[in-house]
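Exercise 3.2. Students should predict the tertiary structure of the chain below and write it as structure tokens, then compare their answer with the key that follows.

Predict this chain's 3D structure.
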Amino acid sequence: MSQHRHATATDGPAPISEAMAEAMAAAGLEPGRSPSPVRLPDAGTLFRHRAARLRRLADGHRLSSWLAFMAQLSDAQHELAAIPTAAAPETGWLSELVHLRNRLRGSLPATAETVLEALPWSDAEALNASAARLLTGVAEQEDIGGAPFIVAALQVAWTRHASGMEAPAVSASAVADRCPICGSAPVAGVIHTGSEIGGLRYLHCGLCHTAWHHVRSACVACGEGNRIDLRLIEAVEDSGSGSNDPARAETCESCNGYLKLFLMEKAPGLDPVADDLASFALDILVGDEGFQRIGGNPFLAQAG
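Answer key:
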């Protein structure tokens, strides 16, 4: 059963640059009353935190085996992210994939081990083509099995790259619908807590894990602000928490799009990618109502 209510904007004040003030004015907000537009990932802790979150979510979940596998993958990503490299992520991810294979070999379930070894290891062109399809949402059937490993390697390369940048040097408008670093669509939005960014919505990239502020009063896809609702699942079997569950779907009646939204106050240790995997039932709910997802989780690739 779904429940919905109208979304409201509660963004608080913070200093901004001249360029950002112009973007705020264009979005109908008061210049000079915006939060820091970009928050960069910490490659040294992100994957370790995700692994722990996945294991908490797996406990009692109907997808426990899948979530536990993803936690194992995150453990390996954490180890790889600590290894410095000068390679650009566009090409360096292939080396990360090899390192990931070496790290996981012999420790995976038999089916996953078979899929990993079946990747076209001697054909870099084929691997790059598969990666491109996965990241652009046009995956083919042949891409699906190896997707978790390819995406994991891409995430390590891009997250390390983003982590090494300086936030003030990254430009992002208050209505940007793509990651300002890698150009990916958001995996989800998060309503944060805390004195600095409490109540603000940041969109989170599922590839390089950069987060950027986006005004809460506008649909991420079409910019409409008057026909936005929040939907949640009440008393789902997986969580049993109803409205205390952190996952919401922000739906727009104008474009029939929806964005996954997580409330940090409901789960202070949440991870957008992990919590998205664990709340797939919400995607089914809003999909059945005719809404199309804005962005998505690269680990949930489906063949077209």
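Discussion points: The chain has two domains: 2-40+172-300, 46-163. The radius of gyration is 19 Å.
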